[in-house]
Amino acid sequence: MITYTQLYKEVADNCGFSGTVSSQSLIGAQRHVNLALRKFKNASRRYWTRKEVKTNLVADQASYTFPEDMVRITTVRITSGSLTLPVTMVDSEELWNRINLVPAMTVGIPTQGFIRGRNELVLYPVPSNTIEDGLIVSYESRQKDMSIEDKTDATLNVVNNSVTITASTGTPFNANMVGMWLSVTDGSDGNWYQITGYTDSTHLTLENYYQGPTKNGVASIIASVPDIPEDYHQALVDYACYRYFLKRKDKDTAAGYKSLYTDALKDYKANYSAKTTGLTQEDLNPYTYNLFNLPPNNVTA
To answer: For the domain bounded by 151-223, which CATH number is listed?
Structure first.
């Protein structure tokens, strides 16, 4: 993993500038690291950050407002008893208006949906019953810019196979750490764990169970980390360097960094644009097939 702070500082080192966060060059580096991350996530259709929310289906209510971080809806489903029913999304406003000319004469279980305006989902037919958590929406989420500096001064008490992290001294935790990543730095465990819960200033909750040994007072790092495969974190540095040198009319250096970034993005698309990995190819059939894909007759003596 390369953290947000490490990323933009490497950009500063590669480009030959340094200074405080207030310097324009450093601010540009931070901005372009975040821009590169958005480009990578768009290239993979945001499978890495797809979210799903549930809300109550309300009787006689046709329209529902999107969550604030929603960019585009992926799927909409309705629960009815033990069934989960897909909602067909209508793209054409003209077709949607025609559908709504005829009132639904049957029990109102929505079967079709339409995106109206910037942040409104409209359902047809209008629900006739209120169903708790009856509306399920999967969506692509808006990328939040990384902005929080690495925290490296917190010492932790960690317990094997536990999701609870306790501060061994002081009160180093805050609610802004939810969504950030944590790793111990004493060499006892090399994993990174996402923080999903803040209890108080001395207790955090991890998404997955801690796999390292139980220890007290271990050094740690808590950081914002790009949520793309770590093999491609370096490409964010390359993109920011490309933009820096391009702005300064150093086309040759800019072209070199752009090539590194483009190659990484191309490889990323090839490997991560789908939700599943490729299948292992099985042994080829020992027969030789002709152009029509018909197996030849067996040769007889």
So the answer is: 2.40.30
